[in-house]
Specification:
It is a single chain. By secondary structure, this protein is α/β, with parallel strands linked by helices. It has a single domain, classed as NAD(P)-binding Rossmann-like Domain (Rossmann fold, 3-Layer(aba) Sandwich). It is built from seven helices and seven strands. It has a seven-stranded parallel sheet, sandwiched between helices. Helix 1 packs across helix 7 and helix 4 packs parallel to helix 5. It is globular and about 50 Å long. About 40% of the residues are buried.
Length: about 250
């Protein structure tokens, strides 16, 4: 193995949106990065250069998280590229599609469970199988795991299952590997939202504000360093998990 004072973090879905914010925060904290994408076409050389300007090294990785064999090989591929094992795994990539109880199908449910539950669990095991010192895992969830809505049923069920898995994995892998989670709320707008709707949704939060991606990233960095914390989920959502909303946010305050 190559000796290097910098720790290595493997981030799934680390090239865009919340994953990119997590990558920036870890790079600023001195972590080398193994950044995963579904396809090499997603690799962004400008973003890679931005991160490496902070004095760290970025190793691009591609894998289909619906492919269990590819998933189990991913931490080993990070070792091959970086010369050392990751000491942090951040599971940020997720599948998000629209369905409800009256439209759910076995194929769509299986697809969500494969990417949003099986892949994080298998990646966690593959990291543990490397057997190299202490390590930490942070799963990115969704605030709806506490107060679900009827929309995006397969997605919601897969995230609820991963939320339940956090404590089980933490107990199973202690003391060498810590397992925690961060549950964001509404964070980054998509074209589905108008500016006016976004403002009204912001006012609906208990804190009357939405989380910024940097705040979610800060929670990940905190958990990566908090050696006495395992089995915990931090909600970074403006207090949304304290409320029960009738629908997914995209259907509210229109």
């Amino acid at each position: 193995m190559v000796e290097n004072a910098r720790p290595l973090a493997l981030i799934t879905g680390g090239w865009r949106r919340i994953g990119a914010a997590i990558a920036r925060a870890l790079a600023a904290s001195g972590w080398d990065l193994a950044l995963h994408a579904h396809s090499p076409s997603t690799f962004d050389p400008v973003f890679k250069a931005e991160l490496e300007a902070l004095g760290i090294v970025v190793h691009p990785l591609a894998a289909d998280l619906a492919d269990a064999e590819a998933v189990t090989h991913l931490p080993g591929e990070a070792v091959a590229l970086a010369g050392r094992a990751p000491s942090l795994l951040v599971n940020c990539a997720a599948l998000f599609r629209e369905d409800k109880i009256m439209t759910v199908s076995a194929s769509v449910l299986d697809a969500h469970l494969a990417v949003n539950l099986a892949a994080p669990v298998l990646l966690t095991r593959a990291l543990a199988d490397l057997g190299e010192g202490e390590a930490s895992v942070v799963h990115i969830l969704d605030q709806r795991v506490l107060n679900p809505v009827p929309d995006q049923l397969s997605y919601t069920l897969s995230k609820q299952a991963l939320h339940a898995a956090v404590r089980t994995l933490a107990r199973s892998l202690a003391p060498r590997i810590r397992v925690n989670a961060v549950a964001p709320g509404l964070t980054l707008p998509t074209p589905d939202y108008s500016d006016a709707q976004w403002a009204r949704l912001t006012a609906m939060m208990p804190l009357e504000r939405l989380a910024d991606p940097t705040e979610i990233a800060e929670a990940v960095v905190f958990l990566a360093k908090a050696r006495a914390i395992t089995g915990q989920t931090i909600f970074v959502d403006g207090g949304a998990h304290l409320e029960s909303y009738a629908r997914d946010f995209v259907y509210l305050a229109q």
